[in-house]
Structure formats: structure tokens, C-alpha cells
């Protein structure tokens, strides 16, 4: 599976047959280079309703005929725009043609404009036999350690490090210690001044924990191959 960082918390996951887009916020993100009129997605996973995760969802879903996957309240809101949706709730999963997806806890909030839209979530995704965790926007919580216990070692964990609205580097490093994934990619930092961080400092914290970390620049692609030592 190939994972491309599109900026902020947006990632594109591509297997041989399917493409999954997570938290698209690209048209109004000055750091993003790919724009919503070009990105292809069979599925769009949305962790919560905040602007910086949802902004390009309907535009891309309409053009690509994508299925939008999110929690129940958010899916109901998005269905109002006529896009195809698949609703989940925390702890629940669904088999899909590419593998499976499961909504997991995130400690944050979820709203669109002033309307509260239920809870936020993170996603566990299995694709091409690989297990990927996108934490969404979240604070640290101890039950992150249940994820590998239940589902096996996570190949790649995307963790927010921006602080202020989510975990900062210290909390995200502790999260990595709880999850012990093969590889961590930091996200949700440097998009705005309020979430400015030095990802190299975060990487150094993970080096001390003997956990691999890769800082992706925008549009950089990472490939996870079966049996590959990362
Ligand atoms: Ni948020
Ligand atoms: Mn956010």
C-alpha cells in the first residue's frame, strides 16, 4: 500500500485496486499542492466535522462517486449533500472490498459551523494486509494500548503533534509508546501558527523510545510492502 501525505491530516492510501482519502483539507490549505479537482478517491474517511478535516469532502465525493465513511451524525449531515455514505460508530467496523475499516475512540469534539455533530473518531484501516491507524484529532488516552492487543501490531500510525487542539509532541510520543507501531508519521502541525512544531524534535523523542518515525513532506509517498523491515 502506498501512503501519500497531502498536508495537515490528509493522507491518500492506494492499493492496487482502491484509493482511500482521509480528512481532505487541501484547497484552502496553502501548504497543500494537490487540489480537490484532481484527487481520486473510492472512499473518503472523515474523522470529525471540523473545517480542517472535512472541507473538500463533498466536492471530491461528488466528482469521484466516493463513499464517505464517518460516524453516524456526520454521515447524516453529509448525506444531505447527496453523497454516498457509510455510517459507523465508535468501536464498530465494516468489511469493505479493500479490507476493513473500524472507527475507534478519539478525545476531541466534532461540529460543523455552530452545529454539534456527535463524536469524533480515529480509524483503524486494514488494506493489503497492512494495519494503519489514523488517530484523527485527539488527546492522549490510555486505551490506545488496546489497539495492538486486539488487532495485532500496527504497521503505520499517523499521530497529531500540533498541540493546542490535539496532542503535542510529548503526548504523541507517549501514544507511540502505548501503541508500539512499526512506523509513526506525525500530522496536524505547522498548517497554522497555532500548531507550529518541529517534527524533528518529535522524531528524536521516538528515536529514544526505539520507535521508527518518518516525517513526510507534502506530497511525499511512503510504500509499505509485505515483509518489509521499516
Ligand atoms: Ni478538530
Ligand atoms: Mn483539526
Summarize the structure in words.
Helix content is 20%, strand content 30%. A seven-stranded mixed beta sheet has the order 6-5-4-3-2-1-15, covered by helices on one side. Strands 7-8-11-12-13-14 form a six-stranded mixed beta sheet, with helices on one face. It has six helices and 15 strands. Helix 4 links the parallel strand 12 (130-134) and strand 13. It is of the alpha/beta class and 230 residues long. Helix 5 packs parallel to helix 6 (199-208).
Brief synopsis:
The protein is α/β, with parallel strands linked by helices and 230 residues long. It is built from six helices and 15 strands. A seven-stranded mixed β-sheet has the order 6-5-4-3-2-1-15, covered by helices on one side. The protein has a six-stranded mixed β-sheet with strand order 7-8-11-12-13-14, with helices on one face.
Strand order of the largest sheet: 6-5-4-3-2-1-15
Question: What compounds sit in this structure?
Answer: nickel (II) ion, manganese (II) ion
Query: What general outline do the C-alpha atoms trace?
Result: globular
Mean pLDDT: 96
Question: What is the overall number of helices?
Answer: 6
Work out the helicity level. Answer: 10-25%
User: Which consecutive residue ranges, at least 5 long each, have pLDDT under 50?
Assistant: none
Major pleated sheet: 7 strands, mixed
* Rg: 16 Å
Give the assembly state of these chains. Answer: single chain
Order of helices and strands: EEEEHHEHEEEEEEEHEHEHE
Proportion of residues in extended strands:
25-35%
Quote the distance from N terminus to C terminus.
Answer: 14 Å
- The total count of strands amounts to 15
